[in-house]
Amino acid sequence: MENNSKFATMDDVARLSGVSKGTVDRVLHDRSGVSEKTKKKVLEVIKEIGYMPNVYASILSQKRSYRIIAIMPYFQKGDYWEMVYDGIMASLEQNKNIHIDIDIIYYNQFDVGSFSKACSHTLALDPNAVLIAPIYKKEASALVSTLSELSVPVVYIDTKLDNSNYLAYYGMPLYASGYLAAHLVFDGKEIPEIVNFNVDRGGAAPNDSMINRHKGFLAYIEEHGLKCKIYDFSMMPYDFMYNIKLFESFFSEHPQVKHIITLNSRAYIISEWLEMRGIKDKKLLGFDMLEKNMEGLRNGYISVLIAERTALHVQQGMQALINFLVFKKKPVIKDNLFSMDVLNKYNVDYYVASNIKENVEQENTTSVLTE
Amino acid sequence: MENNSKFATMDDVARLSGVSKGTVDRVLHDRSGVSEKTKKKVLEVIKEIGYMPNVYASILSQKRSYRIIAIMPYFQKGDYWEMVYDGIMASLEQNKNIHIDIDIIYYNQFDVGSFSKACSHTLALDPNAVLIAPIYKKEASALVSTLSELSVPVVYIDTKLDNSNYLAYYGMPLYASGYLAAHLVFDGKEIPEIVNFNVDRGGAAPNDSMINRHKGFLAYIEEHGLKCKIYDFSMMPYDFMYNIKLFESFFSEHPQVKHIITLNSRAYIISEWLEMRGIKDKKLLGFDMLEKNMEGLRNGYISVLIAERTALHVQQGMQALINFLVFKKKPVIKDNLFSMDVLNKYNVDYYVASNIKENVEQENTTSVLTE
C-alpha cells in the first residue's frame, strides 16, 4: 500500500471512475450487473490510487454466518477443561462483531460411547469448522476423516492425530513434558523409589497424551542411567474416599517413598491429602494451572507444576479457525507447541498476574479494532 | 454500542440530519462553521442511531505527529539490551500507520556521565513521551521530575523510581527474582559454599535492580535457616582474559564449590569457560534469554536460567505510551510485573518457539487492523 493512498476511499474510486459507489461495491464483490468495460475501468482506478477496501467492515456487512463446533468433556468448576472453556469464551468475546456461532458439544470424558454420540451430533449440525481434543483416538479419527471429506477445517487441541487432515494443532509437547517432569524430579541424581498416581478413566484406555508423557518420563530415567522403582496406582477423580484409602495404604506400607508424581491435572487430590495429614517430607510434581493446584504450590504441598497457558492457546486455536473461515488465512504455523512453564511457590503468582495482563492487552487491541 | 447500530455510517448521519457529510465531520471534530441548531440536530441523530466514528481512521487523518524517546545503553550483538531494542522496533512496526517518531538515545551503561548527557539530550529534543530504564537513580530521578513538570508521560522498564510520577512500569519483580533464584539453587537444603560472580560497572554503584535481586537471594537463605558461605567476585564483561584468570584462580583455590550464580545476564561468560575446561560438576544459575545463555542451557553448562519475555514487555511499555498519546487511554495496570520463567535444557526451545508464535499472532491481529 502506497503511503499517499492511505486515505483513498470508495468515494474516490467512484468519482475517478465516473460510476456510483454501488457499482464500485459490485465490482469489489464480483457481483453481476456491471459491464466488462466498467469493471475494467474501476479496477484500473483501484490499482492506480491504491484503494484498499475495508476488509473488516466488508465482512461485517456480508452478514455471512459461520457455525463452529467445539467438542469437549463436560467439567466441574476448577477442572482442566474449564480453562479450555474459558479460551472458547474469550474467542467468542474477541469476535463478537463477526457473525460466528460457537456451539459446544459436551461429552463424558470417562465414557467412549458419550464421545461417539458427540461426534454424530456434530456431523448432524453441519458445522463450518470444528475444534476438538481427540482423546478417543479411533472415534475422533473417524469423525475427522468425514469432516475432511466435507472440507470442514479441524483444529486439534491437547493432542493430535498425525495421519489426519487438520488445519492446525495447539498443544503442549507431550513426550518432552514427561521428559521435563523427570528432569525436575531427578535432576540427574538417583532416587530409589517414586510413586506415580494416574487417573482411572473408567476402564477406557489411556489416551495418547498420557501415553506419550509417560514415555518421555521413562526415557529420561533410562537415558540418564538411573535406577528407580516406580509404583503405579490409579486415583478415582470423583471418589474422595477411594483416593484417601489409596494414599493411606500406600504410604503406611512405603513411608520411605518421598517423591510423588502425577502426569495429569489432578495433583491437588494428593496435595489436599498431604495437607490434611500434615505430611511435609514429600515432593509432589503435577501438571496444569488449576486453582487447587496453585493452592498446593502456595501452601507448599506441591513442589512443582508444569503449566501451559491453556485458555490463551485454545483462543488461538479458535482464531485459526475463524481466520480461515472469514479471512481465508491459513495459520502461519500448523503445529503450535506451547512452552512448558515451570512453576513453584515463588513464581506462581507472577505467572498468574502476567496471564491476566496479557489478556488485558489483547482486549485493548480488540477495542481499538472495533471502535 | 447497540447491536443494530453496527452498520451506521457517516452517510446515515448526514441523510437523517439533512446535512452534508462535511458538516457531520465538522461537528464530530468540533470545528467551527456549523450553527448551534445544526450541531444539536447532528448530535441528536448520532446519539439516536448509535453512530461510532472510526477513531482509528480519524487519528490517521489527523496527521498529528508524536516524538517518543527511548533512553537505553548501547549494546553489542547478543547483549540483554538488544532484546529491549527489539521490543522498541516491534512497537515501531506495529504502529507504522500512526504518525510516531521513535528516537533512541544511547549511553554507556558503565559511565554515569554518559547517562547524564543522554538525559540533557532528551530534554533538548522536546519529546512527547519517554521510555527509560532508570539504572542511574539520582540522574534518572532529576530527568523524570523535569518531564513531570512538562506533563511528559514516562514509562519505566527494568526497574522503577517509586517516588516519581510515571505512567506505567514494566519489569521483572526483582526481590522475588532473587528469592526464586535461591530456591532453585538450594530447594531448602544446605549447600556449604557457593560463588556469586557479579558484573563490575566500572566503579559505578550497583543499580537498584541488582541490589534488590541480591537482597531477595539472601532473604531466602536466612528465612530457610540455611548456612552458606557466599564468595563474591566481579567479572569484567568486556575483559575476556581478566575473567578467565578470575575463574581459574577461584576454582583452583576452591575446587569443592559446586554452585555458581550470577544475578545478571552474563552467565554465558562462565559457561563458556566451563565448556572450555570441560568442567561438568558445577551447577550454574543465571538470568535472561541471551542467545549465548540459551546455548549454555542446551549444552548443559548452565543448569537453569530465570527469563522474561523482554522484547514483548518493552513493546507493551511503548504501547502504553502510544495509547496514552494517541488514544488518551491510561494503562489498565500501572505496575506490570512480568512472570519469571524457569528454563532448563528441556524446555528452553519450546519457550523460544512459543515466543516467536505469540509475536506472529500479534502480527496477524495488526494486519487485520490495518487492512
Automatic annotation (TrEMBL), chains A, B:
Gene3D superfamilies associated with the record: 3.40.50.2300, lambda repressor-like DNA-binding domains (1.10.260.40)
One matching Pfam family: LacI
Matching InterPro entries: HTH_LacI, Lambda_DNA-bd_dom_sf, Peripla_BP_I, SBP_2_dom
Domain HTH lacI-type, chain residue ranges per copy: 8-62
Record carries keyword Transcription: yes
PROSITE patterns reported in the protein's UniProt record: HTH_LACI_1 (PS00356), HTH_LACI_2 (PS50932)
Molecular function terms from GO: DNA-binding transcription factor activity; transcription cis-regulatory region binding
Entries under SUPFAM superfamilies matching the protein: lambda repressor-like DNA-binding domains, Periplasmic binding protein-like I
Record key words, sorted: DNA-binding, Transcription, Transcription regulation
Coiled-coil portions: none
Keyword Transcription: yes
SMART domains referenced in this protein's UniProt entry, alphabetically: HTH_LACI (SM00354)
Top-level taxonomic group: Bacteria
Protein name: LacI family transcriptional regulator
